[in-house]
Amino acid sequence: MLGIGLVIAFTIGAYLIAAYIRLFSMRNLVKESFSTIEVYLQNRFEALTEVAEMVIAYAAHEHETLALVHRIGAGLSDHHSPVEKLTRYVEMEKYLHSINVQADYYPELKASDPYIKLQQRINILEENLSASRRIYNENVTSYNSMISTFPNFLFAAAIGFKSEFLLKMEGAKRAEINWTVT
Length: 182
Hints:
The protein is built from 5 helices and 2 strands; from the N terminus they run αααααββ. The protein has helices at residues 2-58, 63-74, 82-103, 107-110, 113-148; strands at residues 167-169, 179-181.
């Protein structure tokens, strides 16, 4: 009887250790994939800021908007939660979109080589963001499924594993990235 009890205890212990290691690895994968999104968002912000600066060279009255975008960007730091960071990026996009619309009024700017290269860079970053978002959501779905299925849900929350959020696109216009947390 004692032997059977030890085998059961060993089996349960081995399972718990293996499950903990798997959950820990999955949570780190979620964090790493979100960090990739942050890198692409930062690169995109920098590219959009460069576009804004080019447009401002043509439209001096947009200087206040650029100053506001820089203040919002300066507020992005590692001590903000992922939700706060995404919210700030959405705020920046609103202002940067209005500057991009201003570029339409300057045909000589739209034809310039640096402007065209920046637009191409932004398009590549948008594609990378979309792919990174898909990877992140796949990782989150796997992780959330693992912590919410039997028997993992019995101990996952107790040892610090909690559900992560999914990123989704808002609105019908998919060309513009509008992040929301679900």
